[in-house]
Amino acid sequence: MKRNLLLLIAVFILGIAMKSDNPAYKVFNLKGKDAEYKDLLKVALESDIILFGELHNSPICHWLELELLTDLYAEKKENLVIGAEMFESDDQLIIDEYLAGKMKEKNFEAEVKLWDNYKTDYKPLMAFANENKLPFVATNIPRRYAALVNKRGFEALDSLAAEAKSYLPPLPVAYDSELKGYKELVEMMKEAGGHDTLHIAKAQAIKDATMSYFILQNWKAGKTFIHYNGTYHSNNFEGIYWYLKQGNPDLRILTIASAEQDTLDTLATENSKLADFTICIPANMTKTY
């Protein structure tokens, strides 16, 4: 009797807890309608390239990145390719040697340029690639060259040595200054009181162009390439997406955006139509840094 009573109490408490639980995230589709992770996964499995736009300090983003990678691998196996903004193209040899078992993990982490939150946020992705013998592509431009563009424009890249240019997309790169993301970046810098705003959008564009180039270089028909990048690099079907379509308009590209909101009941106007799917996360969610 006592045992049955305790069981009923436990069930009652659990029921109340479930009703009062706050969701850790919510998925919305392009039309702003409620969606589920399984809807996103279904489209991902049918895509050539997946641009997973993250908030760099969000534990929810990083958890879902690994979840999606795991579920894709279950279906795609060796036909899956991983790539990320968080690794620069001149580190590709080191990554390849590490994944080929030619260096220890501690040596890899000492030699490659790692973001400060690598161990908590990106190491699980690299470990997954290592465990499952998947390629991991360093897609981003070496930061010194992005800084050069920010200072002197695209023309500054012309004077680089041939080896340096091998870490870049073919020059000159296409550029549309009227894209919403680039225009907003310039305005944001002006409002913040920045004086060096002339080439800021070009510096962003050379990152997008480089990431797109190395995605295309490492994708072929029958493969699925999942790429992790800051959400602003693919929001509004611009940035990396725009460059990918310039290179191959027939690609089936899935875009995933990430955004924070105070409440998750509906998709806020400012977050609408950012991507095929938008992951909304509570604004008060714990950050990884």
Question: SSE layout and pairings?
Answer:
Elements: H1 2-20, E1 26-29, E2 34-35, H2 37-45, E3 49-54, H3 59-76, E4 80-88, H4 92-99, H5 105-111, H6 118-132, E5 136-140, H7 143-152, H8 162-165, H9 180-191, H10 200-217, E6 224-230, H11 240-247, E7 253-261, E8 277-282
Parallel strand pairs: 3-6, 3-7, 4-5, 4-6, 7-8
Antiparallel strand pairs: 1-2, 1-8
Helix pairs in contact: 3-6, 7-10, 9-10, 10-11
Briefly, what is this?
With 289 residues, this protein is of the alpha/beta class.
Shape: globular
Ends apart, CA distance between termini: 50 Å
Order of helices and strands: HEEHEHEHHHEHHHHEHEE
Percent strand: 15-25%
Q: State the helical fraction.
A: 40-55%
Report on the biggest sheet.
Answer: 8 strands, mixed
CATH class of the domain at 25-140 and 204-282: Alpha Beta
Query: How would you write the strand order of the largest sheet?
Result: 2-1-8-7-3-6-4-5
Instruction: Kindly report the average pLDDT value.
Output: 92
The assigned structural class equals alpha/beta
Reported by name, the CATH topology of the domain at 25-140 and 204-282 is Rossmann fold
Low-pLDDT stretches: 1-20
The total of beta strands comes to 8
Question: Architecture of the domain at 25-140 and 204-282, according to CATH?
Answer: 3-Layer(aba) Sandwich
State Rg: 21 Å
Number of helices: 11
Quaternary organisation of the protein chains: single chain
